[in-house]
Amino acid sequence: MTSLKSQAGVSVLQALVAMLLFAFFLTVVLRLAPTYMEGRSVQATVQSVVDSSNISMSLGEVQKKLTNAFITNQIEAITVKDVKVYREKRVIIIDASYEDRTPLFDGIDAVLMFDNLKFEIE
């Protein structure tokens, strides 16, 4: 049988610090997850427009498809006016890159950058 002096456990202070760290990271994840998921939704929406378009379409037609897709998927993080659609060397480029600011705590914001949203229609 072991004595009480040789037994070790978590002190109250260590448990409090562990709970505070867990609460901090849980708060950060819960605040950033919706913004991140919206960014993934924007990426999937623009990719679906790219997949259903072809090079012979006009820029206006591509813009209209984007508008309809944004309305259908309820994209609110970015507007269609913020998406750049242009021709370059026989391809249509759709650049939907943006950044979103999310408040974490009082006076502290997190900026999520979605700069991998540049697609080509060939």
How do the strands line up in the largest sheet? Answer: 1-2-5
Relative strand content = 15-25%
Largest sheet, strands/sense/barrel: 3 strands, antiparallel
Name the poorly predicted regions: none
Query: What structural category characterises the helix and strand content?
Result: alpha+beta
Number of domains: 1
- The secondary-structure element order is HHEEEEE
What does this 3D model show about the protein?
- This is DUF4845 domain-containing protein.
- It holds the Pfam family DUF4845.
- Keywords: Membrane, Transmembrane, Transmembrane helix.
- With 122 residues, the protein is an alpha+beta fold.
- The protein has one domain.
- The protein is 44% helix and 24% strand.
- The protein has helices spanning 12-51, 59-72; strands at 84-88, 91-95, 98-105, 108-114, 118-121.
- The strands form 2 sheets. Strands 1-2-5 form a 3-stranded antiparallel sheet, covered by helices on one side.
- The longest helix has 40 residues, at 12-51.
- The model has no long low-confidence stretch (mean pLDDT 91).
Which tags fit this structure?
122 residues, alpha+beta, two-stranded antiparallel sheet, elongated
Short description:
The chain crosses the membrane at residues 12-33. This protein has two helices and five strands, in the order ααβββββ. Helix content is 44%, strand content 24%.
